[in-house]
Amino acid sequence: MFVNFFKALRRRGVPVTFNEWLLLQDALSQNLIDSSLTRFYYIARSILVKSEGHFDKYDQAFLECFGHIESDDDLIRRIEERLLQMPPLQLTEEEKRMVEELSLEEARARFEERLRNQDDDLHVGGNRAIGVRGRSPYGAWGYNPAGIRIGQHQSRMRSAIQIAEKRTFRNYRDDVTLDTRSIKTVLSYIRQVVREGPRDMLDVEGTIDATCRNAGELEFIWERARKKRIKLMLLMDAGGTMNPYSELVSRLFSAAKDIVKDLRYYYFHNCIYQELYTDIEQMSAVSTRKVLDQTSRNYKVILVGDAYMAPSELLSRNGAIDYWYRNDRPGIEWLMDVRKRFRKVIWLNPEPAEWWASVPSTRMIQRIFPMYELTLEGMRSGARALIKA
Amino acid sequence: MDRFKGTGSYILSDALREIVNASIVLRRPLLLKGEPGTGKTELAQVIAEDLKLRLIRWNIKSTTKASDGLYVYDTVQRLNDSRFHDKDVSDIKQYIKLGKLGEALCAQEQVVLLIDEIDKADLEFPNDLLFELDQMSFDIVETGEHFKASHRPIVVITSNSEKELPDAFLRRCLFHYIEFPDPEMMERIAKVHFPDLKQNLLTQIVAKFYFIRQRHELRKRPSTSELLDWIQAILAGGITEGELNKRLPFLGVLLKTEEDVARVAVH
Question: How far is A94 from chain B (nearest CA, A)?
């Protein structure tokens, strides 16, 4: 049921899986939705979408698939009113028995036939079958408890379409917002547990082992408590084409500074050569070789840059954009050195991912580093790549 | 099975009520996210009260391990007892202490289990719970015992998104994001706590509150609990509507950093 909705969600990048889809079918068959489009909107969302970042995409998919349906709760109210006007069904015992004998298949077949022949001004949609069933004066259905259930619960909810149209969750979209707090959240994903501080935690395994070796005389072994920390190195492009993104990069930088104790950061101009800069305005340089040698392999490294440059800047000796700058090794070799030195390196690119393929230098850099968009979603995938064993 | 309706002291949206019921019927844990102060933790309490079930609350810390939630085998105590011959150390059962999750699974009646702030724990923590939450059963390896919940607990999990939760875990949950209440809902919430508050004054307080909250430069935006404190302070101080119109009294109750107070007070 509603396969097109499933597809619309997937197309918009909401990671819905088949199991969740089955769970929704389960919810439908247990009549949790109770013929209300609004209830369907909320319950389906709780089953299919697991992050408020995807709520806006859900709203859009919902509008695409169900936007044409007129307000459902209103319809139910109208049906209910008409039902109330109708005299209660008077069935003889024989008739009741006949109703009970009617199998669901038969009932459904008759019902559908009824629907087809019905000339009615009410719009009929598949998911409202129960609703229409109830208003049909066809005796058997009025007697069936399922038919009368419509609109039993009064609803103060707004109509689902109106809610989806409001798109309240636009601001939660992962691919749009990137404030300091959300960057911090993402960066904190890559914190890892290490042992640190005074030895004040009892090591049970060690204690047992030592006690046994000590012929049963108790011998306590203490170890350091586990704490969280990240070792992170940021390498940021401060070249001219990065100017539009300087605000974004500085937000990333200030967030990293706040939560990472062991933060190392350097700047570069378009591409990395033999020198990195600790301060871009004063051009105070340090040797790239030294930085690579003196930084532990365990540092997670994030390069931030648009990877947008002339191929010669990447591939040629003395290709640096600054005319007076002489580099005897092409930039791409330095980049490969960075990649080789550290276990985990990613590249964050503020340009939209769909442009990457059209920029030759970006394509080449993508072959060296896993590249992610500098958006919340991109950073999340990047962070995941950084902590993968 | 009774349906969850909500109690008078906790104002909840219809959407959330439907989702709570869906999670009970579909037998899936309910994962709640939302700004601090939107009543994520309280919801579990309300469910328990409404359905008259016992609430078992498991507070997660950064050092919490999933296995601790099931049971802890106190080896040190046993080792220590073995030196003095006053206890039967061959009886391992007395050194097994059930954790909160274990308690919920072993309960004779249905319970509500709240796993509070699951994002504080290690990244692998939610994955370690998958089997137990799916099957609602666990083994105690040391004694060879097997426990299976006789009544599936209603599981409510809260997260402040400090960490991303693993996909496998998310797939098994129902998810709801509690939005910050709109002014109308906020008035209803305030009325529950201060039934005698005059409507005019309340409307004005709430309007001022949202005026302050909407300012983007605030470091920490005030939440519901701060508003309730503020109302308390205004009532205790005998501030009238007229006065409230001219100035913002007791700003320190709403705003928790000096910079924020300075920013708002200037205007």
Answer: 34
**Per-residue DSSP letter, A374:** S
Q: Does A366 touch chain B (CB under 8 A)?
A: no
Exposure of A340 in the CB half-sphere (CA atoms within 13 A)? 8
The count of CB pairs under 8 A between chains A and B is 83
Do residue B26 and residue A55 have CB atoms under 8 angstroms apart?
Answer: no
User: Which residue from B128, B123, B127 is spatially nearest to B162, judged by alpha carbons?
Assistant: B123
Q: What is the ipTM of this complex?
A: 0.83
pLDDT at B11 over 60: yes
Interface probe, candidates B169, B177, B185, B217, chain A, greatest A C-beta count within 10 A: B177
For chain A positions 27-46, those within 8 Å of chain B (CB to CB) are: 27, 30, 32, 39, 42-43, 45-46
CA-based nearest residue to B181, from B192, B172, B170, B171:
B192
Using CA atoms, how far apart are residues A185 and A263, in angstroms rounded to an integer? 16
**Which chain A residue has the Cα nearest residue B176?**
A46
What is the average pLDDT across A41-62?
89
- Taking the Cβ of residue B14 and every Cβ of chain A, the question of whether any pair is shorter than 8 Å is answered with yes
How is residue A246 written in tokens? 């300087």
Q: Sketch out chain A's domains with CATH numbers.
A: 1-171 (no CATH), 194-227 (no CATH), 230-387 (3.40.50)
How do residues A174-191 score in pLDDT, each as one tens digit? Answer: 554 466 667 777 777 777
To the nearest whole Å, the CA of A284 is away from the closest chain B CA by 33
Strand, helix or coil for residue A304: strand
Mean pLDDT of A330-359: 90
Q: How far apart are CA A49 and CA B32, in angstroms?
A: 12
Q: Which of A132-141, B118-127, B177-186, B227-236 has the lowest mean pLDDT?
A: A132-141
